[in-house]
Amino acid sequence: MSVLAAGPAPANLPPDLAALHAQAFPMLPRALIERAAAYGEEMSAEPGRVLLNSGDREAAFYILLQGYAEALEADAGGAMRSLLVHRDGEFTGSLDLFTDRPNAVTVRANTPSRLLRLSRAALETLILAERSLAEIILRAFMLRRIGYLRRRPYGGAILRSVAGSAQEDPVMDLAVIGGGPAGLAAAAYAASEGLQTLLVGGSLSCGDAPGLDVLKGLPGTITGLCEGPLLRRAQDQSKRFGAHVLPLRTVSRFDGGCYPYRVWLDDGRLVEARSLIVATGMQGDAETVTDQANTAWLDGWLDTDDQGCVHTGRAAAGSMQARDYESSQPGVFAVGAARAGSVKHVLASIAEGAAAVRVVHRFLDASAH
């Protein structure tokens, strides 16, 4: 596999993937780097110095000021192979920085380099304080995960439901309802990890999607994450992983009385799924945020609080054995603002969306037996 320069897109990429590459690996302008400098510390690195170790949980965010930094991954035999090279003005990292997942790759300096280093806590502070930087960084992290550039820069994953079959299974492994930060993170992780995934993005209205403007006004929320164009790019790229994205559709009804579960879309289509993640957020507008979760479409099937937020884990009625993020209905999970007791800001939502996918895997594995 050739090494990707994480700046200009490789010459052989079609235009749509070249545009995706440019947004996944943007070069920060000097003015934004200067603003980021207030949150970190400048450092030097000699060639070969390891900045991040694969498997470690101690993580940091680096902006290349001068030089080159290479991301590497161990192959099946344990040998390190190069995945991509970051250059001046670019930054390392992925959504894993906001989760409890260990580092997926090793990053090391390739040349004598100068870098700006931000700890995980400092990056979180920057994200919440610097909107223009936050939108660039979070968009890049989301697209990197959707593209899953670690292993196969623009290849596909093996799907749980269709492996060894020439025909797609009409029942989805996972339906993610809601296209905000929590839903996007959940769908990106699920699809890249081999689950046949559907993201219904319009249930959490973003950008040019009609309906409720549920993101504005929530502390720490970045509305640029969910613009319609991003969801459309996600739709194009995620098909390579068996994911399907409906950016402007909403869910009108849920039936928890059968399995696989059924959800009806606003255009009358029926979707069947073995598991479900509810990530539909809270109802509100730019001026105020109302005190109701966007969960009326659940038709009372799940245990909720008086705001409509979904109880999960042991707080869910009759679910003393429920998994983390799991509702009173086995295999139905809630993340982000729609989950009772959640922290209502973008970083917490991303972390919950990513973490819930691990629990979905456990549920599907258990139900398969």
- The number of distinct helices, counting runs of at least 4 residues, comes to 7
Q: Which CATH class of the largest domain?
A: Alpha Beta
Over all CA atoms, what is the radius of gyration?
20 Å
Distance between the termini: 37 Å
What are the secondary-structure elements, in order, as H or E? EHHEEEEEEEHHEHEHEEEEEEEEH
Largest sheet: 5 strands, mixed
The helix/strand class is: alpha/beta
Count of strand segments: 18
| CATH homolog superfamily of the largest domain | FAD/NAD(P)-binding domain
Average of per-residue pLDDT values:
79
Q: Which strand order spans the largest sheet, edge to edge or round the barrel?
A: 1-6-5-7-3
Give the total of domains: 2
**Estimated share of beta-strand residues:** 15-25%
Helix content: 10-25%
Low-confidence stretches: 1-5, 149-168, 203-222
User: Under the CATH scheme, which architecture of the largest domain would be assigned?
Assistant: 3-Layer(bba) Sandwich
CATH topology of the largest domain: FAD/NAD(P)-binding domain
Shape, principal axes of CA atoms: elongated
Protein name: Cyclic nucleotide-binding domain-containing protein
Keywords: FAD, Flavoprotein, Oxidoreductase
GO molecular function, one term: oxidoreductase activity
Pfam families: cNMP_binding, GIDA
